[in-house]
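Input sequence (697 aa), recorded before submission:
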Amino acid sequence: MSNDEKPKIGVYICHCGENIAGAVDVKAVAEFAKTLPDVVVVRDYLFMCSDPGQELIKQDIKEGLVNRVVVAACTPRTHEPIFRKACEDAGLNKYYFEMANIRDQCSWAHWHEKEKATEKAKVIIASAVAKARLLEPLEDRYIDLKKEVLVIGGGIAGIFASLDLANAGFKVHLVEKSPSIGGNMAKLDKTFPTNDCSACILTPLMVEVANHPNINLLTYSEVESITGSVGNFKVKVRKKQTYVDWNKCTGCGACLDVCPPKARVPDEFNEGMSLRGAIYIPFPQAVPKKAVVDMNACIKCGGRDFSGKEPRKSKSGKPILAPCERVCPTGAADRTPYRDPNGEIVELEVGAIIVATGYKVMDKSYFKEFSPHHPNVITAMQMERLISATGPSEGKLIKPSDIPKLLEAKKKGEKIEVEKPKTITFISCVGSRDNRYHTYCSRVCCMYMLKQAMILKEKYPDLDIYIFFIDVRTPGKEFDEYYMRCRQLGIKIIKGRAGGIQVLPGDKLLVKGYDAEVCRPVEVITDIAVLATAIEPDNTLRDLARTLGINVGAEGFLKERHTKLYPVDTMTEGIFIAGCAQGPKDIPDSVAQAKAAAASAMSLLEPGKMTVEPLISEVDKEKCTGCGVCVPLCPYGAISLVKHEDKLKSEINPALCKGCGVCTAACPSKAITLHGFTYEQVLAQIKTIAKWPEIQT
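Predicted structure, token format:
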């Protein structure tokens, strides 16, 4: 159709069941639409997005009745592609389409004021028609896609996303900031509701990742910068300095025990309940199982300090070796070579990115009412390590305050007996569902408290266990049966919030709470208090989101494009999210979302080319004065100043431009046009709205 052809506009109004028709008089709006300039066809239908509804539009186009289409219905975020496709299928340029959102912006907002909602619907449609009269034909463009994917985060979500992609033939670069993959799941003893051994499930997957020919595993590494756009992201990854030659290190662990006591620091894997040396392997099943030197803890006890300088020598003239150097059978801990403390930069080119950075457990120190500094007041993650066979007490239930004595005795080769706890009390929703901290539910706390209580009660039947719940949330398959099993074991459930913990003489703790079922205060004397602290976003997530150019929600987790329809997509094309980076969830949900993110990345990259909408900005070089106002304003870094006929002019990279319109609005010379939203088109809409009382009369 020629652009000079007179507009023949068809207006199609959707009832959307009662979503729109319940608040808007659709028939009255349809009659009004017939009076608008260049409108030749007006139809209303129960569901315009249905096949019969779309067929109405297609038929009118094919019969030559309309050459512009306005659909008044739901949000263009979800429905615009549907109607554009209908126009294209009927032979009309799909950008001769305009959508009027009379659901989100009208009926939903004004459902209790039908008369006013009807009038507003008329305004929205009149505005859309005014723009439709000035629409121009546009053509899609295509870009090549690189069939490689970056996965950020090596927890269970990152592992599954990587394996699915790698098994489908895609090259995967898996970046994990810790020395080993495995994430928080590696710390767990068992997983609910089947009580399977966490390590038995996870370790084979970790090994598979390390051995997969299509996976480039980059542990102890972090994403430094990302440029480019979908299909062609350029990524810089910093591999942190390990100070151990990983090509030589066999993970034998000989260096771990000889690290001096002064270099010992709290062990992150055991949640600070034991100590590790400055040179360490994160945990026994680590992948890769390689040693790393923590330079913040290292006391440089040898004659060399990794700088490559001439080492100090003994009286005999031999170099003084650090203990780790002396015992290393392969020479991997050799401090002679110079090692850059900044590590090295690895540059990657990928077509898509999946963010699966997991979560962290909220620090108990925030909750002064629970005496958090007492060693026997612990988090649920600390309890996981306490009951684990790889934990500080090797799975033996003891009071955390006795762990240092047990470890010291073990070091000396002695055996000591410590008193077994008689009572353990769990407290739910510590930091979750709390206006002071996090209003969201962390989702897994009820279940992991029941899991830990069940494991302990089955192993130690004489143990008294109390659980304070605000209310029990077990909404999963086999979850409620799990809860009932705990009650049958004699675990005491108290419905009510615990208000505080008081330290009693003799290392006992007094938990004060309220039992809502009997409507009275309760007090429990306990040996160990376990706080189910909230799941929080990782500390580095906001900075990473800024690097990626994706949104973060009010609660701090990454924001998906659409809660229901696009739960793994982000507003930046080609970047997907999975697992607890998107919000609190359990292992099966994290795995499901990881597989969905992998599938989305596959469907995007598999064709090798991608259609890109032409709704982007373009610079008119004749009007551009080269002032550069637009350059720093572009949130996607798509604009730069380049020489054009010996003068600096703005230039927009179409692969990076997202059509946000910031540059168009800011340009003092009106030299930038945003296709699909030109000055004339937007101004026509504004004038229509401004003149509404006049139009109405």
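Checked by second reader. Residues 9-140 form a domain with the Rossmann fold fold (CATH 3.40.50).
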